[in-house]
Amino acid sequence: STGFRLASVPQIHILCISLHFLYKYDLQGIGKLAVNPIGDRIISAFFQDGKSADFRSFIRVLAHFRPVEEDKSKEPGASEPINSRLNKLRFAFQLYDQDKDGKISRAEMMQVLQMMVGIQVTDEQLECMTDRAIQEADEDGDKALSFEEFAKSVEKLNIEQKMSLRVLK
Amino acid sequence: MMLTNKSLGWQAAAGWLLLGPFMSLILGNPMATVLQDSVLLQDHGSENTSWGNESLGHTVFFSVDYQHVQVPFEITLWIMLASLAKIGFHLYDKLPSVVPESCLLIFVGLIMGGIIYGLNDKSPPVMDSDIFFLYLLPPIVLDAGYFMPSRPFFENIGTILLYAVVGTIWNVFGIGFSLYGICQVEFFHLQDISLLHNLLFSSLIAAVDPVAVLSVFEEIHVNEKLHILVFGESLLNDAVSVVLYKLFRSFCEMPSIKTIDVFAGIGKFFVVGTGGVLVGLLFGTIAAFTTRFTKNIRVIEPLFVFLYSYQSYLTAEMFHLSGIVAIIACAMGMKRYVEANISLKSHTTIKYFMKMWSSVSDTLIFIFLGVSTIGDNHEWSWPYICFTVIFCLVWRALGVLVLTFIINRLHVNTVTTKDQFIIAYGGLRGAICFSLVFLLPDFPRKKLFIAATTVVILFTVFVQGMTIRPLVDLLDVTRKQESAPTVGEQIHIRFLDHLLAGIEDISGHWGQYYWKDKLEYFNSKYLQKFLLREYEQPKSSIVLLYEKLERKHAIELAEAGQLTHEPSHASLLEQAEHAKEILILRHRSLQIHMNRSDSEHSSKEV
C-alpha cells in the first residue's frame, strides 16, 4: 500500500529490525534533528498515537516522500497513491495544524514563524508578519487557512519535486 | 494626440539615427584631414594643445581639431547610435514582440556597414577581439551573474553542468568529425582542410553564446527552470570551449601530438574550471570584506562591486582560466554579504548601472556584428557552410536528447519533451564565436571559416531567434508565472526546506538539503562574522522579503498621500476596517524598524 519495494529500503529496515518498535528518543538522538527548527514536529509526525511507532507506520510516513510516478495507470475507484501531490500537501498541512481542526489558525502560523525566525525579529514584527501571511492567502475571511487555501498558496511551488527524495524511489 | 507624438518621435529618431553615422563617416573619413589642413592652423606635435595657435602669426577664432578628440568622440558616437537605435525600436510597440532586438540591431549594423563600405570602398573596421573580450563582454556576464536567481540555479546545477560540459564536448567532436567527413568528399574541393583544422573550427562554433541567449530568452518569458537551464549552460560552457579552442590551436602549431598532450588537455579542463571558480570566490570574499568598512564613505560603495568583479575577470584571463566562470562566481559569492553591508542607495545604484552597462554592451556587440559582416573577409563555399549549419542543429538536438535521457533516469527533477525541444532550439551562437574566429592564426582557409561562422550566427539569431517565440506559443511551453512574491509562500518554502532536511537526516541520506544545511551552518558560524559589518543575527529570507514588501508598500502609501489601501482580494472589501488596522499597525512597526536600523546609515549617507 505504501508502494515501496521491499529491497529498496535496506537501511531503514536495518534501523528498525533490531527494535521492533521505534521510540521517540531514538529519533531525537539524531543530532541534526535537534538543531532543526521544526525537528520536534517532524518527530511527532511519525508517532501518530502515543510514544511508539512500528515499522509499518514509520514507512507509511516516509512513503509520502517518494517521487511521483506519472505513468501509473489509474483504475477508477482506486484510492490515490500515498505519494501523490495532494497527499504530500496534506502531510505538510498536518505539520502546521497541530490541533487538527482542519485549519491553520493565526496562532499556529505564529508558532511556526516563531520557530523559524523568532530570534531575528521583535514580537510586534512577528505579529505583523503572521497577519500578512494569513491575509495574503485567506480568501473566506476567517483569519485561518483551510487546506484549499493552503494548497492554492503553494501552487506555484513544484511540490511533486520539492517533497521527493530520489533515494526513496 | 498619441499618434502625432509617436510619429514625431519616430521621425526625430530616424533623423538622429542617420545623422550619427554620417557624422562618424565624415569625420572619420581620410578626406576630413584634407579639410582640416586647408581651413585651419594645425597644432604641431602631439604635446601642444590646440590652444596654442599663435605660431603662424595670427589667431583664429574658430578652428576644428578632430585628431585631438577622435577616439573618445567616435566611441561616444557609436554608443549614441546604439542607444538611439534602441529608442527607435521601442517607439513602434509591435516590433519588439515580433522581431527580437538582437536581429534589429544586427540589421542596423548591416546597413551601417554597407554605408561605410560603399563610401570608403574598403572593408569597414572589424570588431577587435580584444575590445570585445576585455570591454564588451564582462558587463553582460556580470549583470547575468549578479542577478542570477540562486535557488533555481543550484537546484539544477547538476543538469546545467552536464549540458555545459558533456554537451559541449559532444557537440565539438560531433561537428568536427562530421565536417571532416564532408571534406573528404572529392566533389566539394575541400580536401585541404585537415582534421585538426576542422576540430579547431568546431570548438569555437559549438558553444552556445550567453549574449545571444540572454537577449532572445529575455523576451519570451519561459518558465524559470527552462530559462535557467539554457542560460546556465550558455554561461558555464565557456570553460570547456576555452580549453578546447586553446588546445586545438596549440596542437595546430605543434609538430607532433603525443597521447600525453591529450591527457594534459583533459587535465587542463579541470584546472580552468575550478581555477576560475576559485579566483572568482577569492575576489568575491575580498569585495565583501571591503564593504564591511565602507560605512563612512557610502558614495564609492558601488565602485567596489564593479572593480572587484572586473578584476576577477582580468585575473582569470591572465592565467588563461575561464573569465566568465570567475566573474560569475565572484558576483554570486559576494552578493549576499555585500547587499547586507551597503546602503539602500548604493544598492539601487549598482542595480541600475549594471543594467545600463550591460544593455549598452549588448547593443554595441550586435551592431558591430552587423558592421563586421560586410566586407571582403569571406570566402564562400556552399557545401561547407550549409553542412556546418545542418550539423550544428543536428548534433545539438542529438546531444540534448541523449543527455536528457540520462538525466531523467538519475533525477527527480525531470525535463519534459517540450522543454528539451526549446533547449535544443535555443542553442544560439553569437559574438563569442565571431571574435574567436578572427583570433585564428592565418592559414589558407581562414576566410572560409569566417564566412561559415558569420552564416551560422546570422542563421541562429535571425531564424531561430525570430521563430522561437511563435514556437513557444505553439507548443504551449509552460510560461513564467508572473505573480508577486508573497511572504506566505516564502514561509512555506523555508518550512519545506527544514522538513526535507529533517527527513533526509532520518533516512540517513546525504542529499541536496543536507549539503544546503551544512553550508548554511558554515555560513552562520564563520563567514558572516568575518564578512558582515553588523553581525547581530543572520537574516532569514522570510524576514528580508517581508521588509522589502513593507518598504514598497510604505512608499506607495506615501506617494498616495494618505492611508488608503487597494484590496488584493475581493473578500477584503468587506473587511475594510480590519485591513486599515493592519495597515496602521504595519506602518508603525515599519517606522520603528526603519528608525532603528537606518539611523546610523542616514546620518552618514550622502
From TrEMBL, chain A:
GO biological process: protein transport
Pfam families for this protein: EF-hand_7
Coiled coil: none
Record GO terms (molecular function): calcium ion binding
Subcellular location: Cell membrane; Cytoplasm; Nucleus
CDD domains in alphabetical order: EFh (cd00051)
Keyword Metal-binding appears in the UniProt entry: yes
Domain of life: Eukaryota
PANTHER family, per the entry: EG:114D9.1 PROTEIN-RELATED (PTHR46002)
UniProt-recorded name of the protein: EF-hand domain-containing protein
Source species of the chain: Sphenodon punctatus (Tuatara)
From TrEMBL, chain B:
Cellular localization per UniProt: Membrane
Recorded topology in the membrane: Multi-pass membrane protein
Superkingdom assignment: Eukaryota
Gene Ontology CC: plasma membrane
Subcellular location, principal: membrane
Keywords on record: Antiport, Ion transport, Membrane, Sodium, Sodium transport, Transmembrane, Transmembrane helix, Transport
Gene3D superfamilies: 6.10.140.1330, 6.10.250.1040
Cited InterPro entries: Cation/H_exchanger_CPA1 (IPR018422), Cation/H_exchanger_TM (IPR006153), NaH_exchanger (IPR004709)
GO molecular function: potassium:proton antiporter activity; sodium:proton antiporter activity
One GO-annotated biological process of the protein: sodium ion import across plasma membrane
Domain (Cation/H+ exchanger transmembrane): residue spans on this chain: 80-472
ATP-binding as UniProt keyword: no
Spans through the membrane: 98-119, 131-148, 160-183, 195-216, 228-248, 269-290, 310-331, 352-375, 381-410, 422-443, 449-472
Pfam entry (one): Na_H_Exchanger
Keyword Transport applies: yes
NCBIfam families tied to this protein: b_cpa1
Family classification: Belongs to the monovalent cation:proton antiporter 1 (CPA1) transporter (TC 2.A.36) family.
Name of the molecule in the record: Sodium/hydrogen exchanger
Native species: Sphenodon punctatus
